Amino acid sequence: MDRTELDKLITYVEENTRADQVSGIEFIDPRNFRNKVKGKQNYVVFGRRGAGKSTLLKTLLEDSTVLTVYVNLEDFKDITFPNIIIKVLLSFFDNIIEELLHNRSFWGNRNYFKTNRLKKRIQDISSSLEQKLEAPDNYDKRNKTVRKSEESESVGAKKGSLSGNFSSKINDEVEMEHSWEINKLNELKTSLDKVKNLIKEIIGFNDKKIFLILDDFYFIPKKIQPFLLDYFHRLAKSNNFYLKIGTIKHRSHLYFQSEESYIGMELNADIYDIDLDYTLDKWNDLKKFKRELLNKAVLASEAEIEIDSIFTENSFNQLCIASGGVPRDFLVLFIKCCQLVGDEKQTIAVPDVREVAIQNYLNKKKALEKDSLNESNILESYINYFRDEVFLKKRTNVFLIENDSLNKAENVGQVIKELVDLRFLHVIENNTSAAPSDGKRYSAYLLDVSLYDNGRPRNFKEVEPDIQTNRQGVRGAPRVTTLKLTELH
Known about the structure:
It is built from 18 helices and twelve strands. The protein has helices at 3-15, 33-37, 53-58, 83-102, 112-134, 184-190, 192-206, 225-236, 283-301, 313-323, 327-338, 350-359, 361-372, 376-393, 403-408, 410-421, 467-475, 482-486; strands at residues 43-46, 66-72, 138-159, 162-183, 209-215, 241-247, 255-257, 262-264, 272-275, 398-402, 425-432, 442-447. The strands form four sheets. It has a five-stranded parallel sheet. It is globular and about 90 Å long. It starts with a helix and ends with a helix.
């Protein structure tokens, strides 16, 4: 093993696994999502942390025929609502002005004055938004007016041979006070037509459609997500203007319907979804994708190395399992495994992969706390329960939950979905029977390898996600009841 070549690959992967706009391994696209997301339609890109949402959305910035504005909502996660609407609008208009300043075709003799006028209009509306930003969300406005009235009075007088009438004016002032409540959100809605018309003018001016990317949408509190989407959906309607959203599925609330109207964007009506997740229930597709991901990295890094010289078939399978199908997790674990290779160790074994995954548990726990805020305690209670009951007591890595009871216990179902999104649990079968059969249908979940206590657990039966060869292991897995899980709340 040439350590220099391996280090070249490690360095390349390390430099390209950051979730930002300036890095990232080329998006691997076997499902043709790149062309789909470029369509003249609103799209929400679902995927777990590290699934490639930002990498896919970043491909939109490469298209010079589209005016694409990228906004990372993590930057605004602590901003109150509706100020977050104003912050996104300001970022949007800042990007538009930057485009106007750097595109020389807008500043030719023919377009100079038009460009200047458009720039001035954008700056004016941005200044107005800045002023709104400083005002409280709700406040009472008072206005005092003084009304003056004048009355004339005539007085007759006679003295000697002179006579006449004299008049005098009496001034009366009345002070009146009016007060009314100002709601910032209502003000934004009232001025929406003005903003929408300006966007229409921008689109007509540069003859380009506009994509607004709202990445890391899940950082916005769920209760205000539909309202945020609702505002920008109204701007997009009847304009050549489309929303592209990156988020985690079960940490997102895109739409709700009240008695009066609906708020937000309804899936398959106002917005369509792209699901990036490769889950363990699609085992063969997942392995193929991960192999292609590594081959691309080797090619891009120009490292002269063969992956099969480092990983056996079993240890590569374990690497795919330990990553839960998430590309960034896969690459991070791959790097850590490669760092073990040296003079005394030429290949990676299954226990090596497990140990590396266990060491990564703290990083995943930090991500849970960051993403889940006030819900982290209940999520950790579930994690501890599954580790104790399934791994420590039953000495396996798979458990079953009955589907009907899971659908009825909405609070339990939501926590399970979020633990899947956070990569502590992995679905390997969503419609299976149990052994011995009781006539009910179950979902099978795999514990994340980071929940193991060591790389060589004793008296342990690990079920791999290849259902074709492990169906009996799945059907015979221990059952967990929703009644027991409800007690954790």
